Prior knowledge:
By secondary structure, the chain is an alpha+beta fold. It has five helices and seven strands, in the order E-H-H-H-E-E-E-H-E-H-E-E. The protein has a single domain, classed as Aminopeptidase, CATH 3.40.630.
Amino acid sequence: MLIRPALLADARDLxxxxxxxxxxxxxxxxxxxDLEGYVAEAFGPERQGEALADPAGRxxxxxxxxSLLGYAWLRAGGPAAGVPFENPLEVARxxxxxxxxxxxAAQSLMAAVLAHGAAAGHDGVWxxxxxxxxxxxxxxxxxxxxxxxxxxFLVGALSYRDRLLVQDL
Length: 169
């Protein structure tokens, strides 16, 4: 398994992977019209290409053979309210294929995220995670993140309470 920066040529595969993993995580938990609207807005080769071309962003992919099996989309820039860093790095998305859960792949990808953040001069990393996702909350706690409050994540017309998690670098 290889962890590497995503390339513009990965946009189509990344769009497909991102949509599939997002659906697997939230289908049945978010009303279909809101879920479909979010997927249409957030994923797609054009949207992924824009994210990959953004100089403030970085996407790391977990690849095996010719297949992408996970990714972390990172964004530098302004922090969310409650983030205690001067130069933070946001983990905007972090997903690993279910077939890799429990294998250490997610831990390896997170280690690459933290190494990238430190090497790029960030003083901390932050992310938000839905408070109703106990598996993710446990993973981030084991990875060294601490809870500093709550925030809101909008999907369609609905707002969901997320936990705001941070880690010093």
